[in-house]
Amino acid sequence: MCGIAGIINLDGASVAPPxxxxxxxxxxxxxxxxxxxxxxxxVGLGHRRxxxxxxxxxxxxxxxxxxxxxxxxxxxxxYNFRELRKELETKGYWFRSKTDSEVVLNALAxxxxxxxxxxxxxxxxxxxxRKERVMLLARDRYGIKPIYICQQGNFFAFGSEQKAIFAxxxxxxxxxxxxxxxxxxxxxxxxxxxLLEDIQLLPAGHxxxxxxxxxxxxxxRTQYWDFDFREPTxxxxxxxxxxxxxxxxxxxxxRQLVTDVELGSYLSGxxxxxxxxAIAAKSCPYxxxxxxxxxLSSASGIxxxxxxxxxxxxxxxxxxxxxxxxxxxxxxxxRVLPKLAWHLEEPRVxxxxxxxxxxxxxxxxxxxxxxxxGGDELFGGYPWRYYRxxxxxxxxxxxxxxYRYWQRLVNNRDLKRMFAPILGDVEHVMTRDIFHDVFRxxxxxxxxxxxxxxxxxxxxxxxxxHGLLVVEDKLSMAHGLExxxxxxxxxxxxxxxxxxxxxxxxxxxxxVRINENEAGDKQAKFFQKTRDxxxxxxxxxxxxxxEDVTRAEKQGFSAPDASWxxxxxxxxVRRTLLNRNAPIYDFIDRSVVDTLLQEHLSGTQNxxxxxxxxxxxxxxxxxxxC
Length: 626
Fold this sequence. Notes:
The chain has 3 domains: 2-174 and 197-223, Aminohydrolase, N-terminal nucleophile (Ntn) domain (Glutamine Phosphoribosylpyrophosphate, subunit 1, domain 1), CATH 3.60.20; 238-381 and 426-558, Rossmann fold (3-Layer(aba) Sandwich); 562-624, no CATH class. Helix content is 42%, strand content 15%.
């Protein structure tokens, strides 16, 4: 796991070594174990190394192929590298290291972009073909590892983080106002935009080719993989599905235990991280586990259940792990926000500062940590979302219903008022069209409730999960920590996409009946169900973790911010968001924010996600200065 960066001067000028050095220095936290630079004329590749497999100098990057044709700068882990290495050795390739990096290099030399389909793991990479003068950039299937690209003026640049591009003196920072509107609609960015113009995030499952022989080189993108949730065509019994899931899950976890450094696991108290810990602990005696809890002395309502330390401690005892935990208080958010915003770069889903502290805790003891991300999105962990759009007249009706639900921060009317200062720059942006466009590659012959639920699973894997993965990468690598996600194993994902909806969601017939015949309070109450999802996963994981955990209601990893924002943190919120000179008010209307804020403080509306998003973007603006 590492950080990559690169620059190509499109006017033919030689790359200045100090600029490439500045680019890798900006992401030094991603790779504290070493650095490397390679420059040839107008092309430069940089690398920061976090040594995980083969800690010797043989793993140094950028890495050159044996025939000196290809140069690779690579970030990630390909877990099936040993199988690929054996196949490549039969084709005459020889290896001077034990790294997966060298396997990736030779696989790309042998198979070109088709090699990407063979990789089971997470990666972002740059491969320079010195003979053809073509740069290949690629990102893993699911978007676990990011790679940002920028073409501005006479240069093309890329990096694991935007900070590498900031280091280029010619780069001009300017707010991408349509992206800001997109974020405040969905608390996420569904397109390839970032909050800075001219910087894009290469989409998951894509590669790009930049051919310097072209008169006007531009990155030509190709999608090589996509999610495809649909009902199976082959018949199998429920028990056969359960047995296959158990086999694939254990295989996925064990695949990701390969490392030459110490490995640990997050342990939230929930089923996903608990199941991963259960399997890993069998191979790693006294596995280190990590939990973040919350001081609930000033919490109220549903937030009184947000601390899962007791459940995590019980599972740690059960699996005999070496367990560490920390307790977060309201002031911890205030203290970490400047540093968090800098590392997170463009904000994404959720209130992510607890993840920052969890990664910080784990990094004190291990260099690799296992995460439960992906289990919910693959196996239907958010039933209260899908229930809202199970019965529809047609695809457009489905889009209307699900789009309204996914306006997570404010509705369109308030959003239009909030963006009044820059409305002329964003009024052409149709966020419903952005939402609709997510489905452009997924099948649209929707006939049954199962088809619509599979559509929702596709949407959340493409958007919500992707946002979580970007956050996970940034906040773990801020501490030089590699985060692995066993649920996103290729074989396990392929199984999940063909697993029948009836095995994921409980009481589907009742869902249809309620949608067709009920309205108002009864329907709204039904939509609050949180134990109906991941049924097949719950059934299988009873074999590995206590049954009271598999039967528990779904609970996210979130601080009691609704209470803190109108209690312990109220002075900080007021001091920041009622300040007329706050940089965020260059783009949005302060009086509208004040009205929405008062709704939260008075208890008439829960605006915790909006307040967090305003605080986060404001802190980011203070550092980026665009």
